[in-house]
Amino acid sequence: MEMKYKLIYANRKTVSIRIDENGALMVRAPYFTSKNEIEKIIEKHRPKLEKMIENVLLKEEALAEADLSVLEERLKSLVLPLVEKYSEKMGISPQKIKFTNAKKRFGSCNSRGTICFSRFLALYPLQAIEYVVAHEMAHLLEMNHSPRFYAIIEKHLPDWRDRKKLLVLKV
Q1: 113-133 pLDDT, tens per residue?
Q2: What is the residue range of 14's domain?
Q3: For 85, phi and psi rounded to 5 degrees?
Q4: How many domains does the chain have?
């Protein structure tokens, strides 16, 4: 059975396959890539893609049923000690910590030193949560995604790339 997907041609060198937050397959491909070639790539990754789509749909179901107060309590119990840990390591502390219902971002940091964490982050493994904490704490030192910013994360969490992958559904 053919997998349905949305195809976006772009000025790029490789084919990228993602699962969006609704479980839809998104393919970005270089201009002039044949549909036959794209379908071969999809078929090659079919078992992994099907599993990822299933996970997204299960997560959406869990989000619909999630008790936000339970998620917040779980997240607080994990995030607050991590914020303390990275405050000591980085020599800086947030002015305020908030918990939100954001579904499209796991965390954010503003110039006033407030860090926000999505309650839905509580559905992810501790390694992923720690990456988000380190990422947002690094923004207190560097308010962008420059090489300096990533150098801060690298210094304090050398395996951040592996942890980040726990948050992103990509092939």
Answers
A1: 999 999 989 989 999 999 999
A2: 6-65
A3: -60, -50
A4: 2
